[in-house]
Amino acid sequence: MRNKYTLLMATMALALSSPAFSQEKEKSWYDKVEFSGFVDVYYQYTQNNKQGATVDTSRAFETYNKQFAVNAVELDIEKLADKESPWGFRIDFMNGQNSFAQERPFTTTNNIWNMNLLQQAYVSMYFDVLKGLTVDAGKMATHIGYEVLESKDNLNYTIGYIFFNTVPFINTGARANLQITDTLAAGLYLYNSAQGTGFTGNGDQFGYKGLSPYGTAGSGSDIYSTTQHAYADGPNPSRTIGTQIKYDAVPDKFNIVWNTLYGNDNVKGRLTNQEVWAQGAYGAAPLRKASNWREDYWFVNNLILSFTPNEKTLFAFDWTYGERAGQTVNAAFGWESPTYNPSAVGLPTASALGLNETQAAYPFGRDNKIKRIYQTFGFWFKYQFTEKFSLALRHERIDDSRYGGSLVVNAPLFNVTPADRYDLQFKDAAGLRPSASSLGMIRTYTITPTFNWSENFIIKLDLRRDEGPGQQFIDEKGRPASHQNGATLGVVAKF
What we know:
mainly beta, two-stranded antiparallel ribbon, 4 helices, 7% helix, 38% strand
């Protein structure tokens, strides 16, 4: 009898341990969906005369001076694609007073033509290749730059001039990231546009209807056009190509990231010298040739080095090289047509030569292969004193002396830029060209003590100084100044 009871108990134990009777169930796909988000608010005081309802364009996202503001509110929903479950997605819902500056053009803020409330939205697929290949398609944040769009994830609170002025923020397209080895990864990016995601209802770049040969503004964007999509970031069939190489040279110690971006966001190319002269002298309207991917382009080269000698210390370096050519030069935000007044420089006017003078100022003759170049250098340092307290330092240098104008890629309000962009431009008294000593060359110094009040609550204080040669800023009385100081207190609750 004892053997019978023993056999019965063993049989029951085996049956209950089988998958059919197991208390543990395999996770469903919806159990793998993760929710996260944050609420980010700040108060900023910068020593210039911008305040109240006036936009302070001397900073990036933080354009509300001497008052409280809701920087951003975000809800993220994500299911990772991995070997066990090879499909996934990510949705980032964002609103707040900085989200308008992430898409272009910014004059369509909060209108039906703007999708900035949907910061990211893409689907993911995982393939078992080498150490893993992930392919995403949809709307996604840029792969370029050391800083990111969310202040809570940066060493400092305020976005720096480098990230704000040298790369697009968000792109629509597809990307493939391959983990080759444990220390080496490569990425290939295929975007609709080099400029970034946003509204475009015109034949050129975002927010740009077209310039006359003299550099004057065209008729504006066709936001009410029924013949073009209101929200479309691919003006031409040429796709923008990006690449990324990540290498952990010394695992957990020294990391190298190399990013590139190359694209052409134009439909028509740059006028030649002959076409410019014909239109200025005779009033002729030559047909503009189609934009050429090899002549009318924007190229960005970005190198990031990060060194973590121990768990408390971090050093980082960011170098960005940008090059615009052809029609991309004309259409770039911040571009100023290099014009001259013939009589002012002692040259005969068109009317004196018996020609049709349609405008007093003519552009300098240049071919369609003209280039504008900028370089930026960023340095970061962070030390974690305790589990709750850390201190971060940032230094930035922008060199746009070869850009032919102020460097403005992501202007807060392009209708008032660069005339109101005191941090990057101050023209000389004659107004014929940017002052030789004020071609940008901006520098920033930021000290950021960070206090982690709890695991979900962060307090950051940016003590920042912006300066440059010449007088590119204004003081609190509206007078030109060589620098400006400011403090920004940011508080973030995350989950």
